[in-house]
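User: Can you predict the 3D structure for this chain?
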Amino acid sequence: MEERVYTVSELNRESRELLEGAFNPIWVKGEIAELKRAASGHLYFTLKDESAELSVVKFRSRIPGIPEAVLEPGTVVLAYGKLTVYEPRGRYQLVASLIQPIGEGALQAAFERLKRRLREEGLFDKAHKKPLPRFPERIGVITSPDGAAIRDIHSVLSRRWPLARIFLFPATVQGEGAPDELVAAIDAAERFSESEGRLDLLIIGRGGGSAEDLMAFNDERLARVLFDCPIPSVSAVGHEIDFSITDFVADLRAPTPSAAAELVAPDREKIIETLEGSVGRMARSLSSRLEAGVTSLKRSLRDHLYRLPSRKAETLEQRLDLALSGIVGSTVRMWKGRSDRLIHLTDVLRLSDPRIPLQRGYSITFLAGEKTPLRNASRLAKGDKITTRLLQGEVSSRIEEVKKE
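Assistant: Here is the predicted structure, written as structure tokens:
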């Protein structure tokens, strides 16, 4: 009986089939070594212990385990995956779909390593922090369009400073693709600020979560792009006790998205109170000065009246009348100017209330799923869903006909 002669390809193929058939997906413990990140996004590394090594590949499309920032040489991890043979090279390897660090301090250790390195490079220095405008009009927000963060920011700004317009630049805020989407959102905000109108500031963040959930904001590339961003930035990631790398790089750190909205916008009610108080103090000061001037003039006139000829007294009386008239006129004009300014500012703040047009019977229409009001019919097509917001309630409709002119 003749023995079978295998080609290399046949032997590798049958070895792969035998190996994959003999093992279900398994967990393997080892220390990461020889880590390489391919341009495709795939990760290639070696797991080793005291006496052996195993080649491992983690494809970009696989279910993410932990952020890549944690995968550093020397980190001990658990890798879950399928044993196989890479046929073109006959290499025995593990195709990992999930990787977890061993020990509660692994994520924190990676975080501290990156924080220390960026601090040494000067990315956290106060000298690089840009001041935030006192009265922002155009605010960019980078977060998930479906998360609570954008709703909290919108709610606070609508109450405190409705003059501000919000521009959302959506991005995934957790998972393997989140850092790339956050970087792309910053780039989009910069282009928008240059071409569509300057953004006064940028808020980037999300609500709270586990350390793994927040790791997207500890990405080194995201930190460097945020540092280079010319728009003043506010990082609002997680809860008050949570800190991320973006918190240290941004121009201002807010403990929550709601707190970010509180920090970047003034309170219109307090501004009105301040204006009213200032006008009142000026009016009282002017009145006091006027009374003091009149009293001084009358005293001077009484002191010298009987020592002057009657003609001189008449001349002084005329000068007194003119002086009093000028002081009164000047004071009235100054007071009226301050009063008109206060009325104007009060009207501006009152008219900025977005509910006023709705009270007059107008409505606001949104394309379903969007947050920006619809202004041009050319964006619509037959069958599109729209939402119309009235003073009380909303109405959902479907487009039957579009007239673009």
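Residues 114 and 220 are 7 Å apart (CA to CA). The two ends are 87 Å apart (CA to CA).
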